[in-house]
Amino acid sequence: MEANKFTQQKIEETLNSIDGINRAGMPVFFYIRLQARLHNSMPAAQPFWLLVTKPAVSLVTLSLLVVLNIASINYFIKSNKQRVSTESNNISDFAQEYNLTGEASLYNDKKIK
What is the per-residue pLDDT for 84? Predict the structure, then answer.
């Protein structure tokens, strides 16, 4: 029974300690000072031209342009080779179709006897 009284007494002490609690007050102009501090700690937005003038951004952009130029040059060289080979195949197909040979000439090179 004594343990029960002791437990009850501790519960009452704990509940009574809550009675002295008051609402916390803020200092005058706390919110305005907080806003000013937050505003000063945030970095200002940089204009676009400041970002472009940084060496890292310039190097990345330059390297990207070089890679794109090399890729486009390779693409055009390959497509040109394919087009030339296709045209030569078309000409040879045409010559075979009409029984044309490369020996034709406007002059008669054969000697007359």
Answer: 64
